[in-house]
Design a protein that fits this description.
Layout lengths: L1 E4 L12 E3 L16 H25 L2 H29 L12 H30 L6 H22 L7 H30 L3 H29 L9 H9 L4 E11 L5 E9 L6 H18 L4 E8 L2 H10 L1
Parallel strand pairs: 1-5, 4-5
Antiparallel strand pairs: 1-2, 3-4
Helix pairs in contact: 1-2, 1-4, 2-3, 2-5, 2-6, 3-6, 4-5, 5-6
């Protein structure tokens, strides 16, 4: 926690303007995706295995659905690789004078590139599927069914590995959604192969390809929306700004709060700043520390905000700020 004592007229300590106090151990300092890096690496290895199997079998059998799912897995594998790279960069890039929060935003940028890549893949798959609907081709459905089953089994393992991390990290969530889409794609491949085996209707393969494209689009859009929220410094989804304001106002000695902002540096790293107006009982540094302790305790109990800065102001300071602006 940090507190800025804002009023040159206060007789605290000569020329003292800031007091910084750390209220928590910043456990998110390297981004919440770091502890899931090993699982991401394992999921990447599994995804590459599925990619090779589906690409080879799809090429040999002429299955567009299998090739489309292989392309989908390729995009997802690149996304997981970017997530791993971004987490590593965020961990190694220490804060400095030019980047006071280090390189944590690389995780968000990687997630954005991942979402764009998924949209491009969806467009390509849809285009090829429409072509195949107009010009159906023969298909060896047996190997396609086997490859789809292998892909589904591996994707289920990946989902189990990433399920917990998906609630803690934007990039891990992106990887989880990608593996989920891969699993649904494998289901579509299996169903289309069964239809071809049972009825001989080879257009089922193209229909499955369209479904795979449809799986990708909403996931990519959701990921891009989350990235936009972070880059636009929107209030984190788990923080109710009015509830936070009410908790601050309920602290003894606090009479008002303004310029309250909560945003996210990267997933799992929310930041807050606020101007807190205190009553006449706060006239020295000791009382200011007491107010800060109360606010710190409140936030630690009710909100997951690890890095906060409070500017403590006496009554009437807002009016003097306006006068300074006008002059």
């Amino acid at each position: 926690m940090g507190v800025l004592l804002a009023d040159a007229g206060w007789t605290l300590w000569p020329r003292l303007r800031t007091v910084v106090r750390m209220g928590h151990d910043h456990g998110h300092a390297h981004g919440s995706g770091v502890r899931h890096r090993g699982r991401l690496a394992l999921v990447l290895a599994l995804s590459v295995t599925v990619l090779v199997v589906e690409a080879v079998v799809g090429w040999l059998t002429g299955s567009l659905a299998l090739l489309a799912d292989a392309g989908h897995v390729l995009g997802d594998s690149i996304g997981v690789a970017m997530a791993l790279a971004a987490i590593t960069v965020a961990q190694l890039g220490r804060p400095g004078s030019r980047r006071s929060f280090g390189y944590h935003r690389t995780e968000v940028l990687a997630a954005g590139l991942n979402g764009l890549l998924l949209l491009v893949l969806a467009a390509w798959i849809g285009w090829r599927a429409v072509e195949r609907l107009g010009d159906p081709q023969d298909l060896e459905a047996g190997p396609v069914l086997a490859a789809g089953a292998v892909g589904l089994a591996v994707n289920v393992v990946g989902l189990l590995l990433l399920r917990r991390g998906a609630t803690e990290s934007l990039n891990v969530r992106g990887a989880y959604l990608e593996v989920l889409g891969d699993a649904l794609g494998s289901v579509a491949v299996i169903v289309s192969a069964v239809v071809v085996l049972a009825t001989g209707w080879t257009r089922a393969d193209a229909v499955a390809s369209l479904l795979i494209a449809a799986f990708i689009v909403p996931r990519a859009a959701s990921l891009l929306r989350d990235v936009a929220d972070v880059l636009l410094e929107g209030t984190p989804a788990g923080v109710d700004l009015e509830e936070l304001r009410a908790h601050i106002l309920a602290a003894p000695g606090v009479v008002d709060v303004h310029d309250l902002h909560v945003w996210t540096i990267t997933s799992g790293m929310p930041v807050m700043s606020a101007h807190v107006v205190v009553d006449g009982s706060v006239t020295a540094m000791g009382e200011a520390h007491q107010v800060l302790d109360r606010l710190s305790e409140c936030l630690s109990e009710h909100f997951d905000v690890e890095h906060s800065t409070f500017q403590i102001e006496p009554l009437g300071h807002a009016d003097s700020e306006k006068d300074h602006v006008h002059h």
